[in-house]
Amino acid sequence: MWDATRLSLQVLAVSVPVIFVLGIAFAMLFARATFRGRVVAETVVMLPLVLPPSVVGYGLLRGLGRGGPLFEWFGINLLFTWHAAAIASAVVGLPLMVQAAKVGFLGVDPLIEDAARVDGAHRWQVYGSITLPLARRGILVGLLLGSVRALGEFGATLAIAGSIPGRTQTMPLAIYDAMQRFDYALANQITVLMIALGYGTIWLTQRLSTDRDTR
User: Fold this and answer.
1) pLDDT in tens, 92-109
2) pLDDT, tens digit, for every residue of 57-91?
3) CB-based burial of residue 118 (10 Å sphere; 0-12 exposed, 13-18 middle, 19+ buried)?
4) pTM of this structure
5) For burial by CB atoms within 10 Å, which of 46, 106, 150, 200 has the most?
6) Would you put residue 121 in left (φ > 0), alpha (ψ -120 to 50) or beta?
């Protein structure tokens, strides 16, 4: 259990910053920018929400393994490593971050930003001192949901990282392995922990949404 927990935290330490940075960038782009193909680009980013995990895993398998661009161009093969698990977690968690952060950005009144520009603030000053703070609830909700989704990723991770104890076996994979071995005691322990984390995350996001609605 502890090896799986350690690996899950290790995967989150890499995937969550990726989800955060790319999520804010994509959300701001989709909320404010107008360009040809924006709907197509946003749809591509959101696809992991609706695609079967096996499809996401197969796509990553083709991209990260031999014959894929990463191997052909740079000679790097990440399959069956914890880095592959981190990439899978980031891919499935990113859409939730983008969607919630986009809602946060859309809730920022452009007139406030325009007023700051009239007062002489530069674009990045407006972004850092006005846009991000005002959209913080949506960003935080997205980060929480994206992180807990990354923690619970199973299908795509199994396809590209396998379930190697101590190397790539995260908590969801450890539950599956315990079920195969009829080790229900271990499965129960990890399941209870993940349910508690999921419940706590959903409760917190609901509180954030409720607090916003009451203001």
Assistant:
1) 999 999 999 999 999 888
2) 999 998 888 877 887 788 888 889 999 999 999 99
3) exposed
4) 0.88
5) 150
6) beta
Surface-to-core class of residue 191, CB atoms within 10 Å of its CB (0-12 exposed, 13-18 middle, 19+ buried): middle
Q: In a 3-state reduction of DSSP, which class is residue 37?
A: coil
Q: Both ends of the chain: CA-CA distance in Å?
A: 43
Helix 171-180 / helix 2-32 crossing angle, nearest 10 deg: 130
**Phi, psi (5° rounding) for residue 50?**
-115, -20
Position of tokens 């917190």? 204
Q: Which residue has the tokens 């990260």?
A: 64
> What is the CB neighbour count within 10 angstroms for residue 40?
8
